[in-house]
């Protein structure tokens, strides 16, 4: 038998493989233990074959391991595999569905991340979770002190200053027991601040060391956090054919509902990486707010658009443009060119 294509359903301990030959007939179907599966692949699968997996936990690691052994590997988003699952969901059917999905000419694949990309990516993920926990802790403090007649300030910085004052004020109606509880919450909030600060410093150092991240910070509204997030998402940019594809993957392009020859464009799709989309929108909002202080081509473009459209529309348009320019800078290994920034499209 000569295997042409293999679909692999990854799991914690047992992997299911499904191989087909040049006639699309299944010739290799079996379960393989985690410790043995690479050896089984090398034993039964020629290097001319393609190997496909869902882009799930561990997929990028195994993809790199297979590529280092000379195989061509394709990762597929799980939502694109699901339509090919026949009957009940089993490991065997999943592996067959992956093998079938990767054969489609129009299938879109996930770019394989390098170890460096994953390192940066997970620094961002941990930081994002800590920021969420910090916000929750601050809201918990606000809610609890409100039951004692104290009005907490909205901004986190002001809340940090208010809590020690509440603890020291003996006449504000807080009981000794609640003061102990509030002191514990204050320590929790301080610890989260310290952890977020450590990761912010980590990202700042990464942005200074990485050449692509340094170039990306030339863009308006892009600092160390956004620059490193873009590097983690793009790698060398080869995972996307053009800048618009990258913007689409972030959900920064309009949804379309067309029928009968009539095209209807709606709000942005909000598909894909919501974290990076959020960062780009926040950065774009800062750039829009300060555009009136500059007279470069991009600032003029922002101000002209702002005169005709709602500010939120302008912010999203700039976030879209920033994503496209970031792809162009990384893919072509070039610096930011202000004279091209205000062009109608960046491919």
Helix and strand arrangement:
Layout: E1 5-9, E2 14-20, E3 26-33, H1 37-44, E4 50-54, H2 59-68, E5 72-76, H3 78-81, H4 91-101, H5 115-146, H6 156-168, H7 176-209, H8 211-216, H9 224-234, H10 243-249, E6 254-256, E7 265-268, H11 274-289, H12 297-308, H13 311-332, H14 338-341
Parallel strand pairs: 1-4, 4-5
Antiparallel strand pairs: 1-2, 2-3, 6-7
Helix pairs in contact: 5-7, 5-9, 6-7, 7-9, 9-11, 10-13, 11-13
Structure commentary:
- The chain is built from 14 helices and 7 strands.
- With 347 residues, it is α/β, with parallel strands linked by helices.
- The chain has 3 domains: 5-101, Ribonuclease H-like superfamily/Ribonuclease H (Nucleotidyltransferase, domain 5, 2-Layer Sandwich); 115-209; 231-341, no CATH class.
- The strands form 2 sheets. It has a 5-stranded mixed beta sheet.
- β2 and β3 (26-33) form a beta hairpin.
- It is globular and about 85 Å long.
- Contiguous helical run count: 14
The general outline is globular
From the alpha carbons, calculate the radius of gyration and give it in angstroms.
25 Å
Mean pLDDT rating: 91
Termini Cα gap: 45 Å
Strand order of the largest sheet: 3-2-1-4-5
What is the number of strand segments?
7
Poorly predicted parts = none
Number of domains: 3
Strand content: 5-15%
Report on the biggest sheet: 5 strands, mixed
Fraction of residues in H or I helices: 40-55%
Structural class: alpha/beta
Order of helices and strands: EEEHEHEHHHHHHHHEEHHHH
């Amino acid at each position: 038998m000569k295997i042409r294509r293999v679909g692999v359903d990854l799991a914690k301990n047992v992997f299911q493989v499904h191989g087909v030959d040049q006639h699309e007939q299944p010739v290799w179907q079996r379960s393989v233990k985690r410790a043995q599966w690479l050896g089984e692949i090398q034993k039964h699968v020629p290097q001319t074959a393609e190997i496909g997996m869902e882009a799930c936990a561990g997929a990028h690691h195994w993809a790199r391991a297979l590529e280092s052994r000379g195989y061509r590997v394709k990762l597929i988003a799980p939502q694109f595999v699901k339509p090919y699952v026949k009957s009940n969901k089993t490991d065997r059917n999943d592996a067959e569905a992956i093998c079938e999905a990767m054969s489609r000419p129009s299938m879109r694949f996930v770019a394989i991340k390098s170890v460096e990309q994953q390192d940066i990516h997970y620094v961002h993920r941990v930081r994002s979770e800590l920021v969420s926990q910090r916000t929750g802790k601050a809201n918990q403090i606000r809610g609890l002190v409100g039951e004692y007649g104290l009005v907490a300030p909205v901004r986190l910085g002001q809340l940090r200053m208010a809590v020690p004052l509440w603890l020291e004020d003996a006449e504000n109606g807080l009981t000794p027991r609640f003061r102990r509880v509030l002191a514990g919450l204050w320590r929790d909030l301080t610890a989260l601040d310290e952890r977020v600060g450590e990761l912010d410093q980590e990202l700042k150092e990464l942005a200074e060391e990485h050449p692509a991240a340094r170039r990306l910070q030339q863009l308006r509204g892009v600092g160390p956090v956004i620059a490193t997030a873009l590097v983690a998402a793009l790698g060398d940019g080869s995972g996307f054919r053009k800048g618009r594809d990258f913007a689409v993957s972030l959900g920064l392009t309009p949804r379309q509902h067309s029928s009968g020859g009539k095209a209807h464009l709606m709000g942005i799709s909000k598909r894909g990486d919501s974290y990076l989309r959020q960062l780009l929108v926040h950065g774009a909002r800062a750039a829009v707010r300060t555009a009136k202080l500059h007279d470069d081509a991009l600032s003029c473009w922002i101000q002209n658009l702002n005169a005709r459209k709602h500010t939120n529309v302008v912010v999203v348009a700039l976030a879209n443009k920033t994503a496209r320019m970031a792809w162009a800078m990384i893919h072509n290994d070039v610096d930011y060119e202000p004279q091209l920034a205000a062009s109608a499209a960046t491919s």
